[in-house]
Request: fold
Amino acid sequence: MDSATRRPRTRIQQEKRELILEAALEVFSARGFRGATVDQIAEAAGMSKPNLLYYFRSKEDIHVTLMRRLLDTWLAPLRDLDDIGDPMTELRSYIRRKLEMARDFPRESRLFANEILQGAPRIMPILEGDMKALVDEKVEVIRGWMRAGKIARTDPYHLIFSIWATTQHYADFDVQVRAVLGPDRGGEGRFEDAARFLEQLFLNGLRPTA
Amino acid sequence: MDSATRRPRTRIQQEKRELILEAALEVFSARGFRGATVDQIAEAAGMSKPNLLYYFRSKEDIHVTLMRRLLDTWLAPLRDLDDIGDPMTELRSYIRRKLEMARDFPRESRLFANEILQGAPRIMPILEGDMKALVDEKVEVIRGWMRAGKIARTDPYHLIFSIWATTQHYADFDVQVRAVLGPDRGGEGRFEDAARFLEQLFLNGLRPTA
DNA sequence: GCAAATTTTGACCGATTGGACAAACGTTAG
DNA sequence: CTAACGTTTGTCCAATCGGTCAAAATTTGC
Reply:
């Protein structure tokens, strides 16, 4: 039986696969796909390399599984951007949630950034498929807000890009942010400061000029 | 004689080193430090591997040289941010120049992003030294504008971060941007659209609330 | 308790990598 | 021509890597 190909049946397989994915997230996000070695992942997972390769066919297999799972949770905040509430409140919530994810899941953000930087060789179909479809859908929501005069008329695509860029920056470029802020201002409070700034920038910058 | 350690004397050495650095920028920015091989760089430079290693002691040596040179040009736009002009005009110029750099020198941007993502193992001293000093200096300029009521009071550090993040996003996450925009909107015009959006966002978002 | 199935590992392999080295090649000055 | 110097490359090496395999250890079903 090839236990790695089928959905794991036993609880041990489920747990071990979870353990490996957690270890792989740690190693991949810190060193990139090519910089990470199977041995490092195995050690981080507390098992031998052949044992790890008993649960996953290959290094690539781990990465693909990790990436597929990641994208789902990564796009969740955008999925929740909804038409029902007040536009400004919706946008503020979205920015805040994205910033919280950069703070609480920096490894996921860096793993994703690494993949995109390398040209997204493994997730390009998803970018052009589900992700584009989701963005297109939310762009229409934003366009509705603009037509209703609730927020300033501007390019919704680049609005989304700029929210992604500014929030993920605090995960992907964390070492730079902390180096520039220095020991006194670079503590945990930097996320509070960032939240305040981004809220002001976007809410002020998108206030309708009516 | 170790011609690689001393400053190159002959014109040939100067030219070959330049050729290698150009090739290394291409390869490093596309595949990261660990993903790039000396053979690939040598082939891109049109020479054999031992020949390349005649001009640079090691792969690391190439990367360090490249990185040191890059940082100088990379921070040039911020250096030019000056106190003399109108604040809003200064900020607009800065944003526009950074965006032009993302468009014209995406390899440099990706090389830098890669280094930071890996924890900046090779340039941390520069980040904490020259770069922090430069940012601190420009933060004071921006604070002056705020005290004079020329722009809204907000956190200057995070203002700079957000300009970095939004502009470099169009180089570092280029494949994602183009995948989401699709074939029709993802052409060269995307930089024009981005410039318009960012100008509106920042200039509107920073308008003094007096 | 025991046999079958599952899990774990030590040993190993072929491929790739960064780098060393000496011999060969080219160029220039006398 | 030729000696000296700078340049180029074929060959090689030790280390590292992803992955295999058969055997051992453990767990599970009865």
In short: Residues 37-39, 49-50, 53, 58-59 of chain B lie near DNA strand C (CB under 10 Å from a C1'). Chain B touches chain A through 57 residues (CB under 8 Å). The CA atoms of residues 14 and 198 of chain B lie 40 Å apart. Confidence is low (pLDDT under 50) at residues 1-6 of chain B.
